[in-house]
Amino acid sequence: xxxxxxxxxxxxxxxxxxxxxxxxxxxxxxxxxxxxxxxxxxxxxxxxxxxxxxxxxxxxxxxxxxxxxxxxxxxxxxxxxxxxxxxxxxxxxxxxxxxxxxxxxxxxxxxxxxxxxxxxxxxxxxxxxxxxxxxxxxxxxxxxxxxxxxxxxxxxxxxxxxxxxxxxxxxxxxxxxxxxxxxxxxxxxxxxxxxxxxxxxxxxxxxxxxxxxxxxxxxxxxxxxxxxxxxxxxxxxxxxxxxxxxxxxxxxxxxxxxxxxxxxxxxxxxxxxxxxxxxxxxxxxxxxxxxxxxxxxxxxxxxxxxxxxxxxxxxxxxxxxxxxxxxxxxxxxxxxxxxxxxxxxxxxxxxxxxxxxxxxxxxxxxxxxxxxxxxxxxxxxxxxxxxxxxxxxxxxxxxxxxxxxxxxxxxxxxxxxxxxxxx
Length: 423
What we know:
The chain is mainly alpha-helical. The protein contains 20 helices and 2 strands. Strands 1-2 form a two-stranded antiparallel sheet. Helix 6 packs antiparallel against helix 7 and helix 15 packs antiparallel against helix 18.
């Protein structure tokens, strides 16, 4: 995991080098054009004049700057942020593997560890000091919280409150997780016939950390939280509320939706992991005693509903959250893929003879997925066309093959290899 993250830093950070015109930093390293936006929360914490950070559009994602503050203080924004990303990802990965070890045994934990070590979704964000690096750690921890709630049918109110509050705290790192995990939690309560009595507790627990943070920013710090970035979901909801039937346009969107959802399924998690999940979920399902868990069901369902909600909405102005170009929105569903496949290799469930005959094929498929993902993660070192295509499909914020073109233009130098910033 550390090797993959390092191999996607410097001039190789995918979120930067896949842009048509990335920012050039000291030593010739590359950054995304939003580099200053992600630095503004640190300026706010530092006590800089309001004019330097007031225009920030990600001030509400304050947990990441707080966690990264010690590293940034000692090693600077770039290096301190990347070190924080590595420590944060390793820590959450260790917690996840320990969780899988407890619920499914040693073989399942090994599978999970290899999937995380080579998961492109970590490498895409880890090389830059941005709050997006919290998506994977927060998704892993959020799924553990959901599991803790779902496993106890008579969950005490205190347990629900603490797990829900933990999820709410994760939303202060990346609020884009809320549309996945809050509805998933409500679905779990509904399926376990606890919705009427406990839904209000779940909503309060998951919302109070973010509400408290926003109140502190607005009235304590005087921050302006009204930006194009924060307004987009309100704009989409208003578009649904002011819906006027246009049957011809609606039918066209509806007929395009199945193909779009299929593309988003593969693009949002770099093709190979979703493909492996599809095999285990469909082809291997009759041959294993491992069945879909309520947490997996809930996250798959809410992801599908969220996709429909964003892509069938009537036209609205401004930044668009629909279409295959921004597949990265749905990245958090990766946790279902890793969880389900890992549980297939459970040591804690009885293994029938029919499963043993399929076991070798399953191991080979996992190995092939790990190899393919590793090839993508290390692709910048050899300017891989596959990496270029996979990164582009994940977030189409520039022209195809821009990744390869920029690597040839700026060179392949991870952090630690410095040269003059002029290309």
